[in-house]
Write a structure and sequence with these properties.
The protein is globular. Helices cover about 30% and strands about 20% of the residues. By secondary structure, the protein is an alpha/beta fold. Helix 18 (about 600-610) crosses helix 19 and helix 19 crosses helix 21 (about 670-695). The longest helix has 27 residues, at about 670-695. Among the domains are: about 1-90, Alpha-Beta Plaits (2-Layer Sandwich); about 100-185, Alpha-Beta Complex (DHBP synthase); about 185-365, DHBP synthase, CATH 3.90.870; about 385-495 and about 735-755, Nucleotidyltransferase, domain 5, CATH 3.30.420.
């Protein structure tokens, strides 16, 4: 018995080999019909035996190409029609704009060809097909075809053209398709930009083996590479890049090799081997062949596997790992244009391994850590952007521009939110230009015209200034921690109101103070601050972020007044005796000491008290050191704390905890146990606040967001305690819990504000 079915498929289904996949699947099932691209996705009709049609529909999603991401499938039965065979029709129709695929790693088929001496693409660094290779980074405009990518200048040879036009070939309409005869080529340049004689790849490998620093052009920008086992080379890279302590990322040739110096469970292995190729944080193994200065004072390596054919060729059978860190100087966006890289990285790189396929959109590496077997983004970028995140409901189109740190923008269309790649910290003109370019590019390729713009409540952020410059769009200012709450709610498709535990370093509060340890109740339309950490002075403002001893002394001053310097603790030794009186006067008179309830600054204070960090070279360094130390202790008890009600809000006071902690430090108790007990205390205290809020609100859903939830110990401890008390706990998996996911929350809050008018 025959039947005919019409199927509409939405999602990332163009430029990923979906039509030839449908062609092969329909042919294998002995079905007739057709498939075509439309502005909203792919539409197809199949006809044949009812059983074969059922098998086709079942396999359509299960066996989809690796770069495809299906968001919706709708089917309807039609009357039977005449026709023979199955064909791929020209594109047509009208409707919503398509979605753009992220960049992807080399597929297994291309990898086999890359290392097959009999293949015409043997050792060709730009091999790709519809299942892999560059996408987002090379697209200039839509619709997605070769003429609107940076491959437009490379005319396909006859052999490549035959593959491109064959519906049965996996390179059918693969826009970056090329070979050594017609495609991009490698070049090796010295520090002055002059061509180096010889075969570029072989020469580059020899230079890396000799300890030289290379700038290597990747998918979304330049990396700086050195042999990760060469301590001298790693130290020289640190010196030239002015990056004294922040860990470098590693690239390993394969999974088997990296397990020699890092612990990798099945969840991490799956992430590492996926087409997105993120950096994944993995616990170190000791002893290790990796240079100590790759990730000093850190229990983890950030490791990725090769993400382009070029990287496979550089590493295979030659290096246990390469350092592959972003090609930029401190606080600057990653270099992605050749001339810019040659200029900006001239003081860092000895040589440049470049090619003539232009990168249109820069995109740094994504960074992930595994939590409860699931990914938590520390940075969402290459491989994931601009993959959409589903919203709980459709809404007007909004542009959201984030805050200051971990910059990313968000555009919404209907029921989807498109988060951009990581842009960096918006603290200089170069990063602001990158934000402006990303807004223009995403609006163009996604065909989105926003109806309003959302930004952070802080008036001095560059992102706020940019939003204000868009004079033709209404603006919505969104409180920082409300946006965190909404971001977690949105990706978990929650409606109504929830309890939000929002812990981070800095967020501008409506009361003019600096928030960061917050217990909110609310949803997309409103929020109420029902609890927070007890505010303490932030001595020196931003200086306290760079110098944790300031926060330690601020907390101690609250407990011990001007006797603080009699305690002989590591943090008291950080301040010269001649400056102590002046510092006390700052606290006594509240000079340049805004109040803060920041949880991130509390972590800094405890790290300083334990002597781990008195100054930091990068954001979160003190907290990372504190967590690494705590992970070495098995203790399960916690310190005392108190909850009081002040002006209708719960105030979590950790003064008792710090008083006991100081006593234990002075008694020379094991620091690891003290660090672990601190983490336990915060988890117990936060769950106690949620319990109290539940008694008055009846709410049992809790969302966790903010940069502090990058801390595995605290997150695990709080989740476990909340679940034991019967709460439903929601964390972030699709967007970063840090400020990189903030634009998602801003976008849905702003969108709902229109709907509520």
């Amino acid at each position: 018995m025959n039947k005919r079915v019409r199927v509409s498929v939405q999602g990332i289904v163009q430029g990923v080999g979906f039509r030839p996949f449908v062609y092969r699947l329909a042919t294998a099932c002995h079905l007739t019909g057709w498939v075509m691209n439309t502005p909203s996705g792919v539409v197809l009709e199949v006809q044949g035996a009812a059983g074969e049609v059922r098998c086709f529909l079942a396999d359509l999603q299960v066996q989809a190409p690796p770069l495809a991401a299906i968001t919706a499938v709708q089917s309807e039965e039609l009357p039977l029609a005449a026709g023979e065979g199955f064909v791929i029709r020209p594109s047509g129709g009208s409707g919503e704009a398509v979605q753009i695929a992220p960049d992807g790693d080399v597929c297994d088929d291309c990898l086999r060809e890359l290392f097959d001496p009999a293949d015409r693409r043997y050792r060709y660094p730009f091999i790709n097909c519809t299942n892999c290779g560059p996408r987002y980074s090379i697209i200039r405009g839509v619709p997605y075809d070769r003429a609107r990518t940076t491959m437009a200048g490379f005319a396909m040879c006859a052999a490549c053209r035959t593959e491109y036009e064959d519906p049965g070939h996996r390179r059918f309409h693969a826009q970056p398709n090329a070979c050594p005869d017609c495609g991009p080529q490698l070049r090796l340049l010295d520090g002055q930009g002059c061509e180096v004689a010889g075969e570029p790849l072989a020469a580059a490998i020899e230079l890396l083996q000799a300890g030289r620093i290379l700038a290597v052009k990747g998918l979304g920008g330049y990396h700086l590479a050195v042999d990760a086992c060469n301590e001298v080379a790693v130290m020289e890279l640190r010196r030239r890049k002015h990056r004294d302590q922040k860990p470098f990322a590693l690239m390993a040739p394969d999974l088997a090799t990296l397990t020699g110096y890092a612990e990798c469970d099945s969840s991490a292995a799956k992430l590492l081997q996926g087409p997105e190729r993120p950096i994944v944080l993995l616990p170190k193994r000791r002893p290790s062949p990796i240079a100590a200065q790759v990730a000093p004072d850190n229990g983890y390596f950030g490791i990725m596997l090769p993400c382009t054919p070029l990287h496979h060729l550089l590493l295979r059978d030659r290096f246990p790992a390469l350092v592959l860190t972003s090609g930029n100087l401190a606080d600057e966006p990653i270099c992605y244009q050749d001339e810019d890289a040659l200029q900006r990285l001239a003081s860092v790189a000895d040589f440049f391994l470049i090619h003539d396929r232009e990168i249109h959109t820069r995109s740094d590496d994504s960074v992930i850590r595994v939590f409860r077997g699931q990914p938590v983004f520390l940075r969402r970028s290459r491989g994931y952007a601009p993959r959409p995140i589903g919203l709980p409901a459709t809404q007007p189109s909004v542009l959201a521009v984030g805050a200051e740190l971990k910059g990313a923008i968000c555009l919404t269309r209907g029921g989807q939110a498109f988060l951009s790649q990581h842009l960096g910290d918006l603290q200089n003109a170069a990063t602001l230009r990158s934000l402006e370019q990303t807004v223009d590019h995403l609006q163009n390729i996604l065909q989105i015209r926003p109806q309003l713009v959302a930004h952070d409540l802080h008036p001095d952020y560059l992102s706020t200034t940019y939003a204000e410059s868009l004079a033709d769009l209404p603006r919505v200012a969104v409180q920082h921690h409300h946006a965190h709450l909404a971001s977690c709610m949105a990706e978990n498709a929650l409606e109504g109101e929830v309890i939000g535990v929002i812990c981070d370093g800095t967020g501008y509060g409506p009361d003019g103070t600096i928030w960061g340890g917050e217990f909110l109740v609310g949803g997309y339309e409103r929020f109420e601050r029902l609890g927070h950490l007890r505010p303490v002075p932030l001595p020196g403002g931003d200086a306290a972020v760079r110098e944790p001893w300031r926060m330690a002394l601020a907390y101690l001053y609250e407990l011990f007044d001007d006797r603080v310097f009699e305690l002989s603790l590591p943090c008291t030794a950080a301040l010269a005796p001649s400056d102590r009186k002046l510092f006390l006067q700052m606290l006594q008179r509240r000079l340049n000491t805004p109040l803060t309830s920041s949880c991130g600054r509390l972590f800094d204070a405890v790290a300083s008290l334990l002597g781990l960090r008195q100054k930091v070279a990068y954001e979160g360094q003190a907290a990372i050191a504190l967590e690494a130390l705590a992970e070495t202790s098995p203790v399960t008890d916690h310190y005392p704390f108190s909850l009081t009600e002040v002006e209708g809000r719960l105030v979590l006071d950790v003064g008792d905890m710090l008083r006991v902690l100081v006593g234990e430090i002075r008694c020379d108790r094991p620091r690891a146990a003290l660090a672990r007990r601190f983490h336990n205390t915060l988890a117990v205290a936060a769950s106690a606040v949620c319990e109290t809020i539940r008694t008055t609100t009846g709410l049992e859903r809790v969302v966790l967001s903010g940069g502090v939830f990058q801390n595995r110990l605290f997150s695990e401890g709080l989740c476990a305690r909340l679940e034991e008390k019967g709460f439903q706990v929601f964390t972030q998996r699709l967007a970063p819990p840090n400020d990189g996911g903030l634009a998602l929350g801003q976008a849905i809050i702003a969108g709902r504000s229109i709907l509520c008018v």
